[in-house]
Specification:
Elements lengths: L3 E5 L4 H5 L10 H18 L5 E4 L3 H7 L5 E4 L16 H7 L1 H9 L12 H7 L1 H8 L4 E5 L1 H11 L16 E7 L4 E7 L3
Parallel strand pairs: 1-4, 2-3, 2-4
Antiparallel strand pairs: 1-5, 5-6
Helix pairs in contact: 4-5
The structure holds 6-O-phosphono-beta-D-fructofuranose.
Keywords: ATP-binding, Hydrolase, Kinase, Nucleotide-binding, Transferase
Organism: Neohortaea acidophila
Family: In the C-terminal section; belongs to the phosphoglycerate mutase family.
């Protein structure tokens, strides 16, 4: 049966400082993940040829750079747009936009950042990606936390409203294999 592989980008400089959004470079540890990723993929996919989909942000291209496959960058895979909060830490958001911080806590799926997006918005913009995925073979997606949570929830048959709480850690390659009744999953963690 056909599988889909998903991975977040390696740790970025913003992940280190706790800032959200942005277009930061990978940290030293993130670059180490990028170097190990080809081995991790080979362990899971063997010699099957893959196509790699990334977002248009630097950290996903940098994570995919050592993978010896054809690559395609999609704008629709860019991270959830955090609007006016882009580049802030959660503590700064709480301080500058206390009501928004609370509103997001109360309804994380529907909350839309000022000038940005909600998880619901991301689910909608992912529709063409999901359609393309359903008719493709052997795709490896390297993208961002919120986006991967939505894709993961879709394949695991979870309601989209639960997307914000899906566990998609850094430095972990997830293989999803859709079966008749449920999607099988395998997680491979990099040693970085
Ligand atoms: O911190 C990394 C990150 O990808 C941010 O860019 C993004 O806003 C956030 O995670 C999404 O996670 P959450 O919805 O839990 O804030």
């Amino acid at each position: 049966p056909r599988s889909i592989w998903i991975s977040r980008h390696g740790e970025s400089m913003y992940n280190l400082s706790g800032q959200i959004g942005g277009d930061a470079n990978l940290s030293a540890r993130g670059r180490k993940y990028a170097e190990e990723l080809p081995t991790l993929v080979k362990r899971s996919a063997g010699d099957s040829p893959l196509t790699v989909w990334t977002s248009t942000l630097k950290r996903t291209a940098q994570t995919a750079q050592h993978l010896p496959y054809e690559k395609l960058a999609w704008k629709a895979l860019d991270e959830l747009d955090s609007g006016v909060c882009d580049g802030l830490t959660y503590a700064e958001i709480e301080e500058k936009y206390p009501r928004d911080f609370k509103a997001r806590d109360e309804d994380k799926y529907n909350y839309r950042y000022l000038g940005g997006e909600s998880y619901r918005d991301v689910v909608i913009r992912l529709e063409p990606i999901i359609m393309e995925l359903e008719r493709s073979e052997n795709i490896l997606i390297v993208t961002h936390q919120a986006v991967l949570r939505c894709i993961y929830a879709y394949f695991m048959g979870s309601t989209q409203e639960k997307s914000p709480w899906m566990e998609v850690p850094l430095h972990c390659l997830i293989r999803l294999t859709p079966r008749a009744y449920k999607t099988e999953e395998e997680r491979l963690f990099a040693d970085v």
